[in-house]
Amino acid sequence: MSEKKEKLLEVKDLKVSFFTPAGEVKAVGGISYDLDYGEVMGVVGESGSGKSQEAYSIIGLLQSPGKVVGGSITFEGQDMLALTKKEMQEYRGNKIAMIFQNPMTSLNPVYTVGNQLVEALRAHDSKISRKEAEQRAMEMMEMVGINNVQKRMNQYPHEFSGGMRQRVMIAMGLICHPQLLIADEPTTALDVTIQAQILDLMKSLQKKTGMGIIFITHNLGVVADICDKVSVMYAGKIVEQGPVDDIFYEPAHPYTKGLLRSMPRVDAQSYERLIPIEGTPVDMLNPPEGCPFAPRCEKCMKICLKKMPPYVEISDKHRSACWLCVEDLMNKEEN
């Protein structure tokens, strides 16, 4: 492989559906993005927008009755959807790792933390001895900020605090030096100070290892802190995509603007009232014909209800799927 020439990850027109007794739920409706080596991409959106399902598709952890029904996922030139279960296991944990939202449900309560770290490493490196694996596990625990590692190796998950368990999960995710780390809301269950520590830790580890990160969250503050670019998801579609500064300072889609308006700002010049996004998310069993955000959009036009808008290039690498952007573009071309 010619190093750094190709993208680390390319997702093209990915479609994921859940086939339930009530009908087909289109969880992910044809999304595309790419990720470079050493790049951090934030995936933002409210619960049910399809953030986690697209991530599970990459790593082959999509649960039944979920199914990838279209599109492609290419990791370092390899078609991930063509891999068998056994071949996928070679990638999972070794080249692509995932940190889950709740560390207590991800760690086995009847095994010591040390044992779980060692087994995670030995599962992907059969040549490594147990002693070497234990040494690597202790180094990894130290790297993620856990003190007194020899004692901690023999403790069980319930003997760790929430923040410490999350650090263990990060250590487990990084122990095989993956090239892609998928972090699924890894700081949601933590208090603000621990959250800041975990983010600093992830940033420093990412700089040291040069891995790519997909950071799934609904917290825009976290995105501003850690990400290079952002994909904003709503009802299974990416409605806006671009560099982090463009998304924060020049948002183009009404949903992105709504998310930013509903977030408290510490740099506000005066008291500002938070404005929530009115209405409820769409029923994914019966999604609307047009833009999925149209029923909740204060600037909704007739065409928004009938037809899904195309992507409009706002600036370099910044695009949005909104009929208002199409209108703006047509006005610019006329002038």
Automatic annotation (TrEMBL):
Keywords from the UniProt entry: ATP-binding, Cell membrane, Membrane, Nucleotide-binding, Transport
Subcellular location as annotated: Cell membrane
Sequence intervals crossing the membrane: none
A Pfam entry, by short name: oligo_HPY
Membrane topology: Peripheral membrane protein
Top-level taxon: Bacteria
The keyword Lyase belongs to this UniProt entry's keyword annotation: no
Family per similarity comment: Belongs to the ABC transporter superfamily.
GO MF entry, a single one: ATP binding
Higher taxonomy: Bacteria, Bacillati, Bacillota, Clostridia, Lachnospirales
Name of the protein in question: ABC transporter ATP-binding protein
Domain (ABC transporter): residue spans on this chain: 9-260
Predominant localisation class: membrane
SUPFAM superfamilies xrefs: P-loop containing nucleoside triphosphate hydrolases (SSF52540)
